């Protein structure tokens, strides 16, 4: 069995993951908690880490069964094949989300386009390219994982 990446309808990632789980599929929808502010209040909201994407673990012969579940649009493809995610990569995402040190970013002397190697945390020794640097966050491209991460960190992890 392998992990595949499913593309879902916009803003239905968590609901679609729940439906897939109810149908007996092994599914993983990594989520984070964000604070959203309106004019009259602030509220903590659980949102998916990857917008419109969830992971499903199944055998290749059962790949078409997921399309019976409402909210599933298609698979993510890489080089003409369904994108496969390694178990280790799923574990890295899980470990990173469980890490309490991720809060906000403090980045100095780094700029977009810089190539770095992460030296601490769940992504230790991962190569990354900085796509964007903000005051409290930065966006990293992790080519080995084939994804882009927006992170808020409490200390520089490079």
Offer a quick outline of the entry.
With 158 residues, this protein is mostly beta strands. It has two helices and 13 strands. The protein has two domains: 2-85, 2-Layer Sandwich (Alpha-Beta Plaits); 100-158, SH3 type barrels (Roll).
Attribute tags:
Alpha-Beta Plaits; SH3 type barrels; mainly beta; 2 domains; four-stranded antiparallel sheet; globular; 13 strands; 158 residues; five-stranded antiparallel sheet
Write the layout of secondary structure elements.
Blueprint (H helix, E strand, L loop, with lengths): L1 E7 L4 H10 L3 E3 L2 E7 L4 E7 L4 E6 L13 E4 L1 E2 L2 E2 L1 E2 L1 H12 L16 E3 L9 E7 L4 E5 L4 E5 L7
Antiparallel strand pairs: 1-5, 1-6, 1-9, 2-5, 3-4, 7-8, 10-11, 11-12, 12-13
Description:
14% of the residues lie in helices and 38% in strands. It has 158 residues and is mainly beta. The strands form 4 sheets. Strands 1, 2, 5, 6 and 9 form a 5-stranded antiparallel sheet that branches. The longest helix has 12 residues, at 87-98. Mean pLDDT is 84; it is low at 104-108.
Structural class: mainly beta
Q: CATH superfamily membership of the largest domain, which one?
A: NusG, N-terminal domain
Number of helices: 2
User: Can you tell me the CATH class of the largest domain?
Assistant: Alpha Beta
List the domain count as a whole number.
2
Distance between the termini: 34 Å
Shape: globular
- CATH architecture level-2 label of the largest domain: 2-Layer Sandwich
Low-confidence stretches: 104-108
What is the share of helical residues?
A: 10-25%
| CATH-defined fold name of the largest domain | Alpha-Beta Plaits
Mean pLDDT: 84
Radius of gyration: 17 Å
* Pattern of helices and strands: EHEEEEEEEEHEEEE
Q: Largest sheet at a glance?
A: 5 strands, antiparallel
